TrEMBL record:
Residues 1-18 form the signal peptide. The keyword Signal applies. This is Lipoprotein. It comes from Sphingomonas ginsenosidimutans. Keywords: Signal. PROSITE patterns: PROKAR_LIPOPROTEIN.
Amino acid sequence: MRPIVPVAATVLAATLLAACGSSEKSTTVGGTTFASDDSKGTSTITSEKGMIRATDGTAAAKVTMPAYAPLYPGAAVTGVIETENDGKKNKMVTLSTPDAIGKVLDFYKGSLTGAGWKVPSSFVGADGGMLAGEKDGKSVSIAFSRHDEGKTDVVVNVPGD
């Protein structure tokens, strides 16, 4: 019966957040804080070990990216997930563009190598692709997938500052 407690706590927290009338909602259960702010388009979970924050909508479009992995020109930002665990930060940004996978991969490969990153692996296929970059003990990964609607989704995973 013990595993039900965390699930029940999460459901309770979500219910309490949904019941609040303001755009900012927060509750703490067992040392973990669940918060959302509709006006900022964010939802955050925080504990003593770290945090995870998801951002969507117009707030996600304001994301700041490092120069070595900039936002793809003309792409729409569809979401941002930021994490911090034991002092290490990470940012995952999802984008959508009508451009072909190969063109997007070439853009990011050029951005990384132009900034002195090594790209030890990359591949591209008809429906997807991936590349990885390394520099100064940090790593970057970028994944691509093509949809039937003619759009390419891009997931850029970079270390935080």
